[in-house]
Fold this protein.
Amino acid sequence: MLQVKNLNVSYGAIHALHGISLEVKQGDIVTLIGANGAGKTTTLRAISGLVKAQSGEVLYEGKSITNMRAHQIVKLGMSHVPEGRMVFANLTVLENLQMGAYLRTDKKAIQNEMEYVFSVFPRLQERQKQVAGTLSGGEQQMLAIGRALMSKPKFLMLDEPSLGIAPLLVKTIFEKIVEINKQQGISILLVEQNANLALEISTYGYVLETGRIILQDQSSALRQNPQVKSAYLGGM
Ligand code: ATP
């Protein structure tokens, strides 16, 4: 579904990604874990066309999308839930969801998507008229995921969905991520600092350190890996 080959990204003099390669197979949840500043967000931004790759290649369904413009990439069926959620604080829940479908014109299909989002997140339906800025962090994360689903993606990228969210809601959100993956067959690339949770729901994982992939394996194997355990799983 997605192949990233030897990706290099710099912000001026800061070389953020040093030749990253990774793969997401159709229907899989793949996770990218790593500490603050390792380059996780930059990897997602480069895939979705929000930062420019200096070199390397991004292949989506076998075709190069390297440095294609972000809205064209969305049209191909890729959706990105950014770190910090970035919902439109002054718009209602309903308006935020409608914004997620702005590239689509088929009203019936948009309505179907809205119903699906409400079936996954009943809380959004209850609060559809509420202004998004007044939702809790967890509810805003649900809204950000719901908004991404409104473009009917085949491939979804999630940047730190657990960040700043109450533990109980984090659990719910991760269950919903699995549900979306299973029900809709949407392939997912998940970036997380909460390695425990991320490795629990994914099939394959990559560990990023200072812009380089230092480890990759089946998630179940990474959870047993001593290096991963001591650095990312709290030494358990
Ligand atoms: P975090 O979890 O803190 O977001 P991350 O793993 O997602 O961390 P990135 O945000 O991708 O890491 O950052 C990778 C490196 O690139 C860091 O050294 C960071 O300081 C740098 N960087 C990120 N964005 C910019 C920017 N807009 N301008 C300059 N440097 C940046």
Summary: Residues 2-232 form a domain with the Rossmann fold fold (CATH 3.40.50.300). The radius of gyration is 17 Å. The longest strand covers residues 14-24.
